[in-house]
């Protein structure tokens, strides 16, 4: 659990450092930073999707898998998110925080940083390893990466980035605490499929930063549960 707390502290500290840089950044430079950061996030997402979708065979050829489940996951997951109006609820909650504390742009920073820092195999594997063996090396490595990412994000998107440490600690902490149970589930094809969905979400986050296209990424979050449900049903039968 110490590794999870270190990761949360790294995100909080990175956000704080980024805010110090943000104060002196002109609006024109801030927009350019958003586009550059969006491009980097898209590349990270594409790399993650490709690395989880393709496998090299013994003869050197590439074999792809999981495309159909990826489509089904986003179709059903996004539909569920739209019905539940998750994005509207998160924006309403974040809007109240913005209004009460007079924090402009809280929502964008919070959602973007939470998506980037929480989604990915490193957080899942690191939390499982920490919970099962007490080895925090993976989470410490992730903390260094998240520190750099949140500095850049906060310099561009502001105060909301710091608060992404809350869902990160809850999410990774839960995996760490229930590692004994989850270690037999979050492996193999299921982990690959969840990560594929997650990195596709990160591509959407990058597009939101870089372009005027705005994906309601919060409404897409239930997509992460569809592979779990699918493989759960397969295990029963």
UniProtKB/TrEMBL annotation:
Record bears the keyword Transmembrane: yes
Segments traversing the membrane: 6-24, 36-54, 66-84, 105-128, 148-170, 190-211
Keywords from the UniProt entry: Membrane, Transmembrane, Transmembrane helix
Domain of life: Bacteria
Pfam families: DUF554 (PF04474)
PANTHER family reported for this sequence: INNER MEMBRANE PROTEIN, INNER MEMBRANE PROTEIN-RELATED
Protein name per the record: DUF554 family protein
